[in-house]
Amino acid sequence: MLVTNIRHRAATTMENPAQIRTQVLQNVSLATLGNIPSVNAMRQVISRSRQQQQLGLPVVQHRRDLVIPNAYAQYEPQPEILEQYLLVDTGVGDENSFFIIGRESHATWLCRGDVFPHGPFDFHYSNVLIN
Q1: 36 vs 81, 101, 131, CA distance in Å?
Q2: I need a surface site. Which of 25, 79, 104, 106 has the fewest CB within 10 A?
Q3: What is the pTM of this model?
C-alpha cells in the first residue's frame, strides 16, 4: 500500500522525492514505518513511475505527417523563461517538409541568409516562416 501511494503521487504530482516521502509517511501506522523502503529505493520507484507516464511522440510514416507539440518546440534556458527551439517548420502536409531547430536567441544568422542547407529538398528563404 505504501509503495502504491508513492507511485500514485509520483505519477500525479511534480513534487520532488523528499516531498513525496513526507506526504506519504504522514498518515502511516507505526507497524508500516518499520517496513518503509530506503530513501534510494523510494527515489527509484518515483523515477520509474514518472518514466512510465511519459509517452513519446507517435511514430509517423512520412515526415509530412509529423506534428511537433509546443512542449517539444520550446526550450527553457532559465526557470520560467521559454524560447522557441523549433525555429522553422515548413508545415504538415508538405511533401518535402523540413525543420530548423536551435535556440531562438542564437537565430539571427538565419535572417542574414548565411544558411547552407544539406539534404534532398529545395530551400527558398521566401518560403520559410519564422515564428
Answers
A1: 39, 46, 51
A2: 79
A3: 0.43
